[in-house]
Amino acid sequence: MRVNEAIAASLLLAFVSASPLQAQVMQPDSSGWTQVANGVFERADSDGSTTRMSYGAAGARYDRAVIGAKIRQLEILRDNGNATEAQLAELADLDKALSGIADVKAVSPEPMTATPGTLCGRFYYGLDSHFLVGVVGATTVVRAGLSPDAFGPPVAYTDLTVYARGTVDPSTASPITVSNSSVNNLNSVSAIADWKQSGIFTPAVLPSSACTGASYAYVQVSAPSVCSPNPGFVSQTKTYSTCTQSP
Fold first, then answer.
1. What's residue 202's pLDDT?
2. pLDDT surpassing 50 at residue 26
3. How far is the C-alpha of 108 from the C-alpha of 41, rounded, in Å?
4. C-beta separation of 40 from 56 below 8 A
5. Residue 229, preceding peptide bond in cis (omega within 30° of 0)
6. Average per-residue pLDDT in the chain?
7. Are 219 and 233 in contact (CB under 8 A)?
8. Could you count the other beta carbons within 10 Å of the beta carbon of residue 61?
9. I want to staple 208 with a disulfide (CB 3.0 to 4.6 A). Which of 19, 148, 202, 242 is the partner?
10. Residue 28 has pLDDT above 80, yes or no
11. Res 231: pLDDT
12. Together in a domain, 100 and 135
């Protein structure tokens, strides 16, 4: 879905301020997607526009906020008699899109696996894995993050890696794998492997035999003052054996 960037930016600021569960904004993965909110990813396209992908209840709330703001703008123009025919048509389309969000999001589960913890007693990590199945395809979303304890003295580290890899394996096509990593930089990364059916498809959730998915993420840190004799390491592996997931 393409959105007005100015509207999206202002709504995102309000969303971040209002939500204590707001996910940390992450760096773009290797396919260009950046997480901008819980359940929402965006990608800058070559023509200067922005493409947004959202999922789950959080993504539905974000979509409703963005579309609702645009509807209110167009309604003001309409009520003042200043709306063009194109704007009136857009208003009708947006009304339809807003009413259909709940049904569309119902086939996408909330996060399947979220693993928080600490390494060496001084670093916090988070590993997330999602497998999202809809009408047209499936997506594996993987995130990994590592940050220092903000309340203690700084800890020097000699080696640090944050890694995420996601795979979707369709039964009728080659596997799609995307990975992303951050080395020697306290950061968060994400990887989104996205598969869309080609040709004709029916308006129903994909059958279980249509695909499988997998994810792998890990964080590792070498900090001799707190991690000795071995580096701190934790990983998460998830395999999705069918293409049908329940919310």
1. 56
2. no
3. 15
4. no
5. yes
6. 76
7. yes
8. 19
9. 242
10. no
11. 87
12. no
Residues 6+ apart with CB under 8 A from 116: 124, 125, 126
Strand order in the sheet with 137-148: 113-119, 123-133, 137-148, 188-196
Does one domain contain both 118 and 231? yes
Hey, what are 20's tokens? Answer: 């204590």
Structurally, the chain folds into a number of domains equal to 2
Domain holding 184: CATH number?
Answer: 2.60.40
Confirm whether 204 is domain-assigned: yes
156 and 42 in one domain?
no
The answer to the question of residue 184 being in a domain is yes
Range of the domain at 132: 113-240
Q: Is 21 a residue whose pLDDT tops 50? A: no
- Within 8 A by CB and 6+ apart from 2, the residues are 49, 50, 51, 52
DSSP characters for 105-131?
Answer: HTTSPSPSEEEEEEETTTEEEEEEEEE
Write down the pTM of the prediction.
0.59
- Give per-residue pLDDT as tens, 59-104: 777 888 888 888 888 999 999 999 899 899 888 888 887 776 655 4
Distances (CA, A) of 183 to 34, 119, 146, 203, 224: 18, 17, 11, 43, 17
Determine the Cα–Cα distance for residues 33 and 153; give it in Å rounded to an integer: 34
